[in-house]
Amino acid sequence: GKTKPVSNIEILSPRLTQTQYVTPAKNKINFQWKGFPEKAKVSLWLGKNRKTLKPSSFTETNSLQEALTPGIHLWKLVATDASGRQLGETSVFRLKVLQRQPPTLLQPEENSILTLSMVNFKWLNPEDSEKIGLEVGKDPELKQKFVSEAFSEKENYQTELPNGDYWLKLSARYPDSEEWISSRIVHFKIGPDSKTLEPAPLAAPLPLQISWTENTKDSIQYFTQYPRASYSWTAINGDKVRQWRFKIAEKEESLRNPAQAPLILKETQEMSFETPLPKPGRYIAQVEALDEKNQVLATSEMKSLEILPLPALKAPSFLPLNSELKADLQGRLNLKWTAIDGAQNYTVILMDSAGKEIRKAKFQGLSATLVNLLPGEYKVSVHAIDSHGRESEKQIPRPVQVPDSSDLQAPKFKKIEVN
Asked: 402 with 328: CB under 8 angstroms?
């Protein structure tokens, strides 16, 4: 028969209610989950509808990346063991993918020769963009910039430039991202009448571009014990890079001003960096690509991250919420409590009426039974325990009444199965 969906699989990425975006340079969507058995082989099934779903990628870890075209996609995860026997699958999910583009340059045209020093730049803004950036420089890497402007709605800019060769780049930024999506570098020239000039040079090769990877785009990272941050990046046309210089500071000014030393300055061969930090808070990071002479080839955008303690789980509540917790005449008390997302297990604590602990026990499910309670008044509380062994937020213990009876022994816990 058909494999039933597994209910305890948690989809970590992509977020099921959010539209995913791709760019011409980055068209891969990150899929991440937890809950399948260890060593299971997990396949990602994709299709435009349920009838066309078929396996696309396989992994033995809990994540993979898949290149997706813009449009509506249906997907699910299927787990099998080493023999190919299916262990379970998720429900079928719907994923909307949209492509984000850089602005479209209208003028000047690539490799054009302008006879007037007053240059009128025109472009078309991509839909839903928040900011448009225009950069014009005297070199293909745009290190010597004549123009560096940002606009909200404009689609033109006019300025006067001296004769010479120029390169320009247009970029777009969208409301929910700090990443700039850039066009390729375009060459143009200002000089005498084109009839007296030699043929325009070929387009310059694409410059080195550094981009933060998907896991670094989130504006918040959490820690459980000590503050630390993790960064990674990619590079296009990075064949001349020999190492990377990574910098972290608490303020952007500390990275812009060479006279101010950053909080952390390290050189690395890897395209990732993880470091402890002195305290929680907001930090700014930047990466420089260095050649064999330790000269800077390119610099990344500044990346802002909030480093915060991982919030505790919410406290579970005994059920029913507003009714008295009362044992039966045999000193037997049945307890049930609400489920908490992220909880690995639950701890129930029995106390006397003064709040002194009598017994403590751990449960995987959402219910427990206390037996052999002596007559009197007690208090009981329940805590959720997360994957790091931390207790949930504190709650006020609930009072418990045990009616008068006889032949009762010391109180005991009894675990019961959860349906």
From this structure: no
Per the CB < 8 A criterion, the answer to whether 141 and 166 are in contact is: no
CA separation for the pair 103, 133 (Å, rounded): 9
For the full predicted model, state whether its pTM sits above 0.85.
no
> For 138-177, where are the E strands, in sequence order?
145-151, 156-160, 164-173
The count of C-alpha atoms lying within 13 angstroms of the C-alpha of 149, restricted to the half-sphere facing its C-beta, is 15
- Among the listed residues 372, 369, 371, 351, the one whose alpha carbon sits nearest the alpha carbon of residue 360: 351
- The neighbouring-strand residues paired with 5 are 89
Q: How far apart are the C-alpha atoms of 335 and 367, rounded to whole Å?
A: 5
Q: Reduce the DSSP state of residue 256 to 3 states and report it.
A: helix
Integer Cα distance of 99 and 20 in angstroms: 9
Token pair 């305890």: residue:
8
Q: Provide block-wise average pLDDT over 10 residues at a time, the chain (419 residues).
A: 65 88 85 90 94 93 91 93 90 91 92 92 90 94 92 91 94 88 93 55 77 74 90 90 93 84 88 92 93 92 91 93 89 94 95 93 94 93 94 92 68 46
Identify the three-state secondary structure at position 332.
coil
Of the candidates 61, 93, 88, the one whose C-alpha atom is nearest the C-alpha of residue 76 is 93
